[in-house]
Task: structure prediction
Amino acid sequence: MMKKMKYVLVTGGVVSGLGKGVTASSIGVLLKACGLRVTSIKIDPYLNTDAGTMSPFEHGEVYVLDDGGEVDLDLGNYERFLDIKLTRDNNITTGKIYQASAVIDKERRGDYLGKTVQVVPHITDAIQEWIERVAMIPVDGKEGPADVCVIELGGTIGDIESMPFIEALGQFSYRVGPGNFCLIHVSLVPVLSVVGEQKTKPTQHSVRGLRSQGLTPNILACRSTAALDENVKAKLSQFCHVPEENVVTLYDVPNIWHIPLLLKDQKAHEAILRVLNLQSTTKEPSLKDWTSRARICDVLHEPVRIAMVGKYTGLSDAYLSVTKALLHASVALRKKLVIDWIAACDLEDATEKENPNAYKAAWKLLKAADGVLVPGGFGNRGVEGKILAAKYARENKIPFLGICLGMQIAVIEYARSILGLRDANSTEIDPNTKNPCVIFMPEGSKTHMGATMRLGSRKTYFQVKDCKSAKLYGNRSFIDERHRHRYEVNPDMVARFEKAGLSFTGKDDTGRRMEIIELPNHPYFIGVQFHPEFKSRPAKPSPMFLGLIAASCGKLDTLIQDSVSQGNVLAKLGNGLVYPNGNATKPANLLSETFSYYNGVHV
Result:
């Protein structure tokens, strides 16, 4: 008989700082540590069919999956925390339910036999069917479905757009029956700074709204600046009808790797397992690796400064996976990451005239950096500033990593400075350029924006064995990395670039698509057409980011010499806590050191 799937639903009230995504991911880590196989689903109630056409200022970065799905950034949290590979269907939106589940098409065909097609039951049934189908898809590389599916409902209880999903989930909880459904409600318990009192009213009202829509929480996860007082827990238990032992606090911690440990210390796993009737089939969770990693992260003190030159630097979530990948690499190499955010347009000559202070500040940060990273992006704003950043890094032997557009602008800069093609450009930026270094490659549409790019995991074949990128990847013949782009290096100009010293060390299987560039005589100047940040994990940092951090610390040769693969470097993580002074005890000057934010980026 097929085992029955268990479901954990995470909903949210008014939440500040730490949100539902990190909570849902941490719950998954805790259940996985109990010996359960875990999968995840994120529900976003907006009408977009996916996140692909959204500005980063709307919902942060667009996270790309192996199958090419353009999804909410929370799926990146799930993949990083649980080390799984999700599919595009693990992200549900209102648009998908109406379009992909074909409710409207069925109505047009007459499949409903003349009945009035309504939100209840037709849309709510489609939502439930989607959840049940996707929950059965294995995401951990093993055969068969997972044991538990963690579902995060985006938005806030009370939102009009969420109501069909809440109704569907209420029906779903009744359908799967007691012992198979656990509801965890994340809510804010603010602290009045004047008197220091923890206020329970926002949570009370949030739970009341949830119950009025047919859902009753089994566990309360309360976001606050400090652990809840016992009398506050008792009050929440009384007014929200939740056992006191099922009220847990998500209080401020130095970094988010502490959250699974926080939940474990408050026995959240026991509460979940009781609701799901899984006590007899699980083990006591072991989070040794997480504990070591979280504590190492807390005590690092030797800084490495990375200049992030981008278009959306005013919103760190726009580059969330990039900052996480930098963090993974810096912790692996025992360095404290400091990100200096530089708006690319502030480096341009026009800014020197219009806003000289911003211009001077931007260049001061760039020149103080140990390494430079230019992430992906679209459009022409800030492109010239990115080109100037690449030129500065190339000429001054500063470690440089260009991702997607970052690689393309490095090629443009090389064409202008070394090949002498002053008007060299991308046809995305200047359709009429006489020297198109970067061109549209016909794998998508020029007119439709959604899901038209070269998307998902594709193979890159190394062309040069004795190059830095190949060594960082363990001298493999090919690698699989995720892509998201429309424009690529013009293959007709490759021979000229190579003759001038720019090496194309990685290409696709046809040899026409350039995937990796390197400057052999530079300490670390690498551009990649793919997005290595999407496959970086806390215990398995991306080789490209490891290389950048190592080069920025003057340790690249040592990193490559120590091992032809990254395995030996990563094995140091999770094998016990070693502080930056090389001892097992914390240095005295680190007693008050934490770094929960890198220039405003919570990690």
Q: What stands out?
A: The longest strand covers residues 454-462.
